[in-house]
Amino acid sequence: MRPGERIGGLVQSLSEHLVTNVEEHQLEGARRAFLQNGFTKLPFLVPDRVKSAVADEIEELVAEHGVRRGMSFKETGGTPRLMRNVRHQEISEHGTVIPRVYASTELLDALAKVAGEPVLPCPYEPERYVITELEQSGDTHGWHWDDYSFALVWVVACPPAEHGGFVQCVPRTYWNKQDPQLHRQFISQPIHSFELRPGDLYLMRTDTTLHRVYPLTGGRRLIINMGYASRADLHKPISHETMDGLWNGSREDQTERMDHTDQAEQTV
Asked: What would you report as the CA-atom Rg of the chain, rounded to the nearest whole angstrom?
């Protein structure tokens, strides 16, 4: 089978699964959780065949194109980003399955039922899909919001909760990039924590849900984040300071980790 035929078959498999196997009560249950917590698990949304193909492509891309990054951002209160990642540019150039899955009409329709509003491809291409790998003790995607409304995260690898790597979030929060006031956010709203397993998918309302990945103490966490927009996102000014700062730059200027003192001070 030629590559194009294989990919077309995978996309068709996803479409058929979403139309015939995903039931309304599953989507409705996910919608209730999403509205309450800004977060909901959706492992039932994608068939195992497609999960495996996406996972294989992620493993290949991170092995060939992954870049270590270590930095912090004043826009999120100095929280750290310590990870390896593959940017949208490399995924688009060297990936085949991921770009097609991202644009699936049936997938967008299912996500819209969970979100309660249209879910649209992100107009800012660098935020459409990014691979991140946490691989060293202390690695984390520190507390932050995203510029756009939705993120669908595919979990390829994740350690048991005892070794970190789980998601924490604070729903119904607002990102003021000039004065994020993280500690005030923690006081005003409860912090919810969610354990994850390989093969999980989850949808998050990322522009109004402060969230992080709990720092790793062992094992490995590998995911792809697929970012999507709401209709409102298309009509408001959006800057991209943290996204541009994190994902831009060459392999050489991104390989320095923050030292352990900075990491301890900034992992809120």
From this structure: 18
CA-to-CA distance for 129 and 98, rounded, in angstroms? 8
Q: Are 69 and 133 in contact (CB under 8 A)?
A: no
Query: DSSP character for 257?
Result: P
Cβ neighbour number for residue 127 with a 10 Å cutoff = 23
* H or E stretch at 252: none
CA-CA-CA-CA torsion sign (132, 137, 139, 140): positive
Tell me the pLDDT tens digit for each residue of 24-44: 999 999 999 999 999 999 999
- What's the DSSP call for residue 78? S
The pTM of the full predicted model, rounded to 2 decimals, is: 0.89
What are the φ and ψ backbone dihedral angles of 39, each rounded to 5 degrees?
-155, 140
33 within 8 A of 169, measured Cβ to Cβ: no
Characterise 164 by phi-psi region: left (phi > 0), alpha (psi -120 to 50), beta (else): left
